[in-house]
Specification:
Elements lengths: L5 E8 L6 E9 L2 E9 L6 H17 L7 H5 L9 H12 L5 H18 L9 H13 L4 H20 L27 H17 L8 H10 L4 H6 L5 E2 L4 E4 L9 E4 L2 H13 L2 H7 L16 H22 L11 H14 L4 H8 L5 H11 L6 H8 L16 E2 L6 E2 L17
Antiparallel strand pairs: 1-2, 2-3, 4-5, 5-6, 7-8
Helix pairs in contact: 3-6, 4-5, 4-6, 5-6, 7-8, 7-12, 8-10, 8-13, 13-14, 13-15
Length: about 425
């Protein structure tokens, strides 16, 4: 004798704390079926769900009930009236594990603004007008045009998921019409003589402060300008990751997309780092060993990247410009950031004849746009101090004076045949137009 049909109510509370999904587990025809009803926002509650179950069981007894198709059972059950808060939360749970720490913080900042203004809107009801209204609210909160566009870019990523899940037919956050007009900022980098002045000023500043306030200002800025790491990578780098004899510095995190990478250090930079390491107090080395940061605080801790960005760089640039103004020379850009110094590294490396692919690898980039943009600017320069560039960017295995064609190839002294060139060298030297 077959078992009689049974049914029970199942509830599923959502993470927003406001939504509850009602469904039923029905045993009929020798197996169990799950039937999706809807959410409390659609008018469902336990009483209504029980009435629906009773109706289903009556149909089962009469043999007229048709169970839901298997494909509907197995797919994710999405509420067509879910709010953007829920859609964004689902997207964030899938995406956040793929992001680096700093990127995750940036996305959380955008997500907070987005949920504040659109979180209670039904995802399926978001149209171009609602996106434009949210954009104006963001402007009213004091966000710049660039920041507003960053929030809208995140909304577009979330709605891409909504399109794939059939919650909406089209992504209304895509397209230039939804974005604010942003003036193109001039991407600057420092000239070689500016780099030298910046390091000299930093060295003088370092020697003028008490011993407990010294953390290697000159060597730190030299590393940012001549090796190109991110400031967070440099402040987090431990002594164990620096190989002075091999001329390499390992930076990055294995969990990021770029992962760990080795920076090749020039002879000039290695001299700066040797002098800095020799000045680190012995008590810090003895207390922390290989875990000591390359640029430690007086207690052996990690320097604050924000302080370096907002205090060290600003004050150093201010002092350099004061000196250069008295000497009647071009001033450094008013806003010099750690990213400016990364672009400075790229410009120096390219001017020294390095392969753009090698420069990309040193920067930890998979997108060639920054490197090619800097390369285009470097190629437009007609007058550069090549001797100074070579002094800054020469590696220990290269001659102290640059010879014509050195960027092309090196020949074996015995056979006279070309040897394999280093990946840092270009296939051909940079060509410049005659300024005349």
């Amino acid at each position: 004798m077959p078992r009689p049909p049974t049914g029970m109510i199942e509830t599923h509370p959502w993470n927003d704390g406001k939504t509850v999904t009602y469904r039923a587990r029905v045993r009929a025809y020798g197996r169990q079926w799950r039937v999706h009803f809807g959410t409390n926002h659609q008018g469902w509650n336990e009483d209504r769900a029980q009435v629906e179950i009773d109706t289903i069981l009556d149909k089962v007894r009469r043999g007229t009930w048709e169970p839901p198709a298997r494909r509907r059972e197995e797919r994710d059950e999405l509420d067509p009236r879910e709010t953007l808060r829920v859609t964004a939360y689902r997207w964030w749970q899938r995406r956040k594990t793929e992001l680096a720490d700093n990127t995750r913080l940036d996305y959380q900042w955008r997500l907070d603004h987005l949920v504040r203004h659109l979180g209670d809107e039904e995802t399926a009801a978001i149209d171009a007008r609602r996106v434009d209204n949210a954009r104006q609210k963001l402007v009213g909160n004091g966000l710049s045009a660039r920041s507003v566009n960053m929030v809208l870019d995140l909304l577009a990523q979330i709605l891409d998921d909504a399109v794939e899940y059939k919650l909406v037919d089209a992504n209304v956050a895509r397209g230039k019409r939804r974005r604010m007009r942003v003036g193109r900022s001039r991407r600057s980098f420092l000239e070689p003589d500016m780099v030298v002045d910046l390091l000299d000023i930093a060295g003088e500043w370092e020697s003028s402060v008490p011993a407990h306030q010294r953390y290697g200002r000159r060597a730190l800025l030299a590393t940012l300008c001549i090796a190109g790491p991110r400031i967070s990578e440099l402040t987090g780098a431990r002594r164990s990751r620096l190989d002075v004899h091999g001329g390499r510095l390992r930076v990055g995190e294995a969990k990021t997309e770029a992962g760990l990478r080795d920076l090749e250090l020039t002879a000039f930079l290695l001299d700066e780092l040797r002098a800095h390491l020799a000045a680190v107090p012995n008590k810090l080395r003895d207390a922390h060993g290989a875990k000591l940061p390359i640029f430690p605080t007086r207690t052996g801790g990690t320097l604050n990247a924000s302080n370096l960005r907002n205090r060290l760089l600003r004050e150093a640039v201010k002092r350099v410009n004061g000196r250069r103004e008295k000497e009647g020379r071009m001033l450094l850009p008013e806003k010099v950031t750690p990213h400016t110094l990364r672009r400075t590294f790229a410009s120096l490396a390219l001017a020294a004849g390095r392969d753009p692919r090698w420069v990309m690898g040193e920067l930890g980039h998979t997108d060639a746009r920054l490197t090619l943009n800097v390369y285009a600017q470097v190629m437009q320069r007609h007058r550069v101090d090549e001797a100074l560039i070579w002094r800054l960017m020469r590696f220990p295995d290269e001659p102290e004076e640059r010879h014509p064609g050195a960027a092309n190839e090196t020949k074996n002294e015995t056979t006279g045949r070309p040897e394999a060139t280093s990946p840092r060298r270009r296939a051909a030297p940079l060509k410049r137009e005659n300024p005349a």
